[in-house]
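Sequence in, structure out.
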Amino acid sequence: MGDVQSESFRGPGHLDGGNTIRAEVAIVIVTYNSEAEIGKCLRSVFAQQDSVRQRIIVLDNASTDSTVTVLREEFPDVELIESKTNLGFAAGVNLAASRAEAEYLLLLNPDTIILDHAVDTIFEFARKNPAHGIYGGRIVNSDGSTDPMSCWGQPSLWSMASFALGLTTLFRHNAFFDPESLGSWQRDTIREVGAITGCFLLANAELWRRLDGLDERYFMYGEDVDFARRALSLGFRPILCPEARLLHEGGRSSSTTAHKTLLLYRGKAHLVCTHWHGVARRVGLIFLVAGVGLRALLAKPFSARRTREAYERWGAVWMERRHWVRGYAP
């Protein structure tokens, strides 16, 4: 990992006189050019804190804006780690988490707003349901509607085939034809899921250490699904707690929609290359490429602005297929 400079501030997990109180939840945030969001996020964390002892650790991935200045000047109770290079999300989280001593780790995106004491709520839920190991909350939009991205189903050959045939688009949020979306479920009930999104993910610290944290080969996107898959192999079952609510703007760390989509499919390809074997691996990668190609082809003949944007997105990913289909190759 890149060079880092650590500036540690005494925060909620500490007492005067050098007597340290172990935090119950260590909140880990990775920032990159997050000056517009990080202040709102941290103010909500502090405002919504109830009885749970929290420690906040922020790793900045070589931001070129005023993110670090905002953190230094407005949030002296936060432990700040400055990286001289952009480590990516997984490596950044792991470095920050290595400094944390707590019962649970909470991964939190800088473009989120905590609602209704969500950190306390999800911690208490995890304490009552320790066998699951990984916990998520319910993401809502500013109008109160549900954003389904808080959790997903694990990819399968059927979900990949549905993507390749365009069924996941034709029947969006259909439990059978779009299984990774988990259907029309509004994330309003307690439910075991395939994966919890890394923007708000609580993990038991012992499980985190057992799995060696996130796989650092993922630069961004896919590392949360990989983490859940490895936990599932050990018998843990990620679960969603709908009472833990937050707002999430999403996608602010990617410069363009095409760039974000490329990273998403590189992550998906790496997941297939890592966890699938033999014929399933080859077929899964073919399905991924075929699905991207179909969407690029269908968008190309039309001239409507929305369709042009779709082609710019899918066309760019299609042109780069020989690179991302290998995943994060050595």
